[in-house]
Design a protein that fits this description.
HTH-type_TetR-like_transc_reg, mainly alpha, HTH_TetR, 67% helix, Tetracycline Repressor, domain 2, 216 residues, 0% strand, single chain, transcription cis-regulatory region binding, DNA-binding
Length: 216
C-alpha cells in the first residue's frame, strides 16, 4: 500500500461506539468545559459524523454531558462504598475516605475536572449535588458516631461532613497541581485538621507557637 493511503476504519458495535463517545466527551469536557465544547468537536475527535453522535445521544451535547457526569459520580461513589465497607476506627475511615477522593483525583483526573466544574445542564446540577451529598452522607455516619461516643450532640455531623468533603475536594485541586506531599500525608493532615481542630494541633519538635495554641 502507498505510504499516504488512508487507514481502514474500524467498525464498532453500538455499545463500543457509545463508550467511545463517552470517553471522548469526558476528555473534551474536562479540558474545555461544557460551554467551550461543541458537538462538531466531539464528532471530530471521535472521527464520526454529527448524526452518529445524535444516534447515540438524541439530546446531543447536553445528553452526552449528563451521562458523562452520571458515570463519573457512580465510579466515585462505588469507590467510597468499597472503602468504607472495610471497617476500622472512625479516624481510619475518615482517612480512607479522603484517600479515595485523592486517588480518584490522581487516577481519573479528567473525571474529577468534569465533576469539579459548575454544571450548566438542567438536571445535572442536582446530580452533582447528589454526588457530593452522598459522599458527605457516608462521612456523616462516621462523624456522628464519633461525636456520640464522646458525649457530644451528633446533630451537627451533617454540617461537619459537608465541610470535610468540601475541604478534601478543594485541597485535592491544590494537590493535583503539585503532587507533593504524598497522598497519604495529605489525607493524614486533612483528617488531623478535621478531627482535632486547630486548637489541638501539636507544634513540631523545636517549634512553639508565639502566643499559645490556636483556640479560635
Amino acid at each position: 500500500m502507498a505510504g499516504g493511503a488512508a487507514r481502514p476504519r474500524v467498525r464498532m458495535t453500538g455499545t463500543q461506539r457509545r463508550q467511545q463517545l463517552l470517553d471522548v466527551g469526558r476528555e473534551v469536557f474536562a479540558r474545555r468545559g461544557y460551554d467551550g465544547t461543541s458537538i462538531e468537536e466531539l464528532a471530530a475527535r471521535a472521527e464520526v459524523s454529527k448524526p452518529v453522535v445524535y444516534e447515540h445521544f438524541s439530546g446531543g451535547k447536553e445528553e452526552l454531558y449528563a451521562v458523562v457526569v452520571d458515570r463519573e459520580m457512580q465510579r466515585l461513589l462505588d469507590r467510597f462504598t468499597a472503602a468504607l465497607a472495610a471497617g476500622g476506627s472512625p479516624r481510619r475511615l475518615l482517612e480512607r475516605a479522603a484517600l479515595v477522593l485523592l486517588d480518584y483525583i490522581e487516577e481519573d483526573t479528567d473525571g474529577f475536572r468534569v465533576l469539579s466544574r459548575d454544571s450548566p445542564v438542567a438536571g445535572s446540577a442536582d446530580g452533582h449535588a447528589s454526588l457530593i451529598g452522598e459522599v458527605a452522607h457516608r462521612v456523616e455516619h462516621v462523624m456522628g458516631a464519633q461525636l456520640d461516643a464522646r458525649g457530644h450532640d451528633p446533630a451537627p455531623a451533617g454540617l461537619y461532613s459537608q465541610a470535610l468533603v468540601g475541604m478534601v475536594a478543594l485541597a485535592g485541586q491544590w494537590w493535583l497541581a503539585r503532587r507533593s506531599p504524598g497522598k497519604e500525608e495529605v489525607a493524614a493532615h486533612l483528617v488531623d485538621l478535621a478531627y482535632g481542630g486547630l486548637g489541638h494541633l501539636q507544634p513540631s519538635a523545636g517549634r512553639r507557637p508565639a502566643s499559645g495554641p490556636l483556640t479560635g
